[in-house]
Amino acid sequence: MIQESTVRPLSAYIMLVVCLALLLITILFPALNLLGRMEASIIASVVSGVILLFLSAGFIINNPNESKVLILFGEYKGTVKDYGFFWANPFLVKKNVSLRARNLNGSQLKVNDKLGNPIEIAAVIVWQVQDTAKAILEVDDYQQFVVVQSEAAVRHLANAFPYDTFDDDHEPGLTLRAGAEKVNELLEMELNVRLARAGIFVIEARISHLAYASEIAGAMLQRQQAIAVVAARRQIVEGAVGMVEMALAKLSEKEIVHLDEERKAAMVSNLLVVLCGEKAVHPILNAGTLHH
């Protein structure tokens, strides 16, 4: 596997002076007939022009956070990462590779989660080229490679975990909705493994869109609402039972009234109705005794 090596070509300013001199020769020799013979002056002008064109092909302008991968007759010769004005062998093929961080806003994918529910999922990925030699020489198109492998990683992640869990009787495992930070971390790790062949480093990867597919979204919303209602009712009942227990204990402790088992059952029933009912209770005043 090819590994990146950095090189620093010659400064281009000396060669620029040479090229300017050749340009003067190309223009002035035939115009002024400096060699005394027009045929010789034209020949000298043509030769200098050809040399000028050849040498001009060796100039390299490298901007900050850019690089040039140098290839000579199919052989990798190194990568220029320093920014500036350089000159190198004109026969070198120079391929530009940006070293800037880039964003990939992935498209929404419809996949099945671990439980088989169809969901929509998308991710935003921040990446940059770390090894220019691999990016150019190990894959055909490294930008397209990032897109395809990112979609594959997101699909694999969605298939590995459920969107959500509805089982309250067991300890919930990792889900796409509840375990966002862990899911993002796993996605970033998988992407770095997949893209290492192309010399790509993933700086950050996050799920940007997550929802049930439209065909089951309504049913899943009703299910979530039902679970929320059951959880709320459970909390209300637990609180009501505690309040009834406290009321009976206080009545017995302070000996405000003595109740037999039947009266206690009736009192417990009435208190639970009052505390657990959805609507406000309208009390009925008892003008007599507790036994009439």
From TrEMBL:
GO CC terms, sorted: membrane
Membrane spanning stretches: 12-35, 42-61
Chief place of localization: membrane
Recorded coiled-coil stretches: none
Record localization: Membrane
UniProt keyword rRNA-binding present: no
Entry keyword Chloroplast: no
Keyword annotations of the record: Membrane, Transmembrane, Transmembrane helix
SUPFAM superfamilies: Band 7/SPFH domain (SSF117892)
Membrane topology: Single-pass membrane protein
InterPro entries listed in its UniProt record: Band_7 (IPR001107), Band_7/SPFH_dom_sf (IPR036013)
Domain Band: 57-224
The protein, known as: SPFH domain-containing protein
